[in-house]
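Much of our argument rests on the idea that a fold can be written as discrete symbols. Part of our work consisted of pairing the sequence of a single chain with a tokenised description of its backbone. The amino acid sequence and the backbone structure tokens for this protein are reproduced below.
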Amino acid sequence: MALPLYDNQPTRRAPLVTYLLIAVNVVVFLLSPIASIGHGGESRLQRNCEQTTFLLKYGAIPKEMIDDRQAPMPDEVASACHPAPYHKRPWLSALSSMFLHGGVTHILGNMVYLFIFGAATEDRLGRLRFLLFYLLVGYIAAYGFAVTYPGSMTPLVGASGAIAGVLGSHLVLYPRSKTIALVLSFLPFRLPSWTLLVQFFVFQWFSLGDQSQTAYVAHIYGFVAGMICGLLVRRGGFARKSAALSWR
């Protein structure tokens, strides 16, 4: 596996939306119970209950998204945690889930990929279009996961689906770009970006059926959606031509 460090595709302006998305993800994570190390008198059970309730409230739960209504709290959580009642809109949870992460390594990996590959895509689309594109592929990834596992009550969290969309679009928009990457964990090489992006997709594909907590299906939906959007941009001429600093 090769770990990307830097994409050499030149950009004409600062990727402000990419920076903003990274900042929002980091701030939300730091303020969430997931990042909490607990207070002095707080027990492990209390922390687990707080984190579980938080993920159920703001995560994208496939059964809720398919049924378009909030599901009852799982019995084991209700009996152990006695959470306060809350109202949830399942279609909005697909949005909130894009800014939640399950741990430090989860958010770190996502933000590294967004930082490396988001700038060039934002430069090509323009800031507002890039933001809308990011949210669109994130929604497609979340609902694709829900359609695949319609009865699941496991919350889907993370920006991975949206970022996979960024990778897919980068593959189509910049097929000849180069990326500095670590190969064999410590050797830096200048590789064609497409090799890293195809590696990402192949890994997700062959990881389907893995019993881990990773939502590989959502990554695949996001990646393919990003590729399709990239193709539409190339064929339709929607990409930004001017270097002027605007949100158009």
Q: What stands out?
A: The CA atoms of residues 26 and 108 lie 9 Å apart.
